[in-house]
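Order emerges. For instance:

***
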Amino acid sequence: MPAKAKKVTITMKSISDTAGGAPDVMELITEGTLRPVTLGKVQGWEISYNDSEATGFAGSVTTVSCIGEELASMTRNGAANARLIIEKDRRHHCHYGTEYGEMLLGISASRIVNNMTEDGGDMYFKYTIDVNSALVSENEIYLNVKVSE
């Protein structure tokens, strides 16, 4: 039986640095859920939240999972669909939906930090995005999760 999800407050900061431009910074505070997940014998954490106009994906639900400090995923379902696999020192081809259609992106992570517990905590991901092996952006995501029950 799956563990009961806890209500949480999620603070997220996303930095996307494209070549030749100023970094794009987005900050968001939202309500969501936290629950434990496992992959084999390794325990991790999953947070979910409803997207809004602030994220540009109103009508979608985003789920971020982090297993240890080697593997994470970000899945968006609803009005826009995407699944990004973020694995340290490994490149994944991932589907990313936009209002114009779906794209195939290369995702390569250089750092994953997972300081989550059942009481909340922090996650951090540093990764690059490429299209046809051409660098599109260097990205960082900081997540802070606080139990609100």
